[in-house]
Amino acid sequence: MAEFYAHIKASSGAYKYFCNGQWLESSSGKTVPVTNPSTLQKDYQVQACTQEEVNNVFAAAKAAQLSWAKTPLWKRAEYLHKVAVLMRQNAQPMADCLVKEIAKPAKDALTEVIRSADLIDYTAEEGLRSLGEGQLLTSDSFPGQPRNKLCLVSKVPLGVVLCIPPFNYPVNLAVSKLAPSLMAGNAVVLKPPSQGVVAGIHMLACFAAAGLPAGVVNVITGKGSEIGDFLTTHPAVNCISFTGGDTGISISHKAGMVPLQMELGGKDACIVCSDADLDLAASHIVKGGFSYSGQRCTAVKVVLAMQDIADELVAKVHAGVAKLSVGRPEDNADITPVVSEASANFIQGLVEDAREKGAQFLTEWRRENNLIAPVLLDHVTPDMRIAWEEPFGPVLPVLRVGSIDEAVHHCNSSNLGLQGCVFTRDINTAMRVSDAMQTGTVQVNAAPARGPDHFPFQGFRDSGIGSQGIKNSLAMMTKIKSTVINLDKESYTLG
Question: Active site annotated at which positions (predicted)?
Answer without folding.
Answer: 263
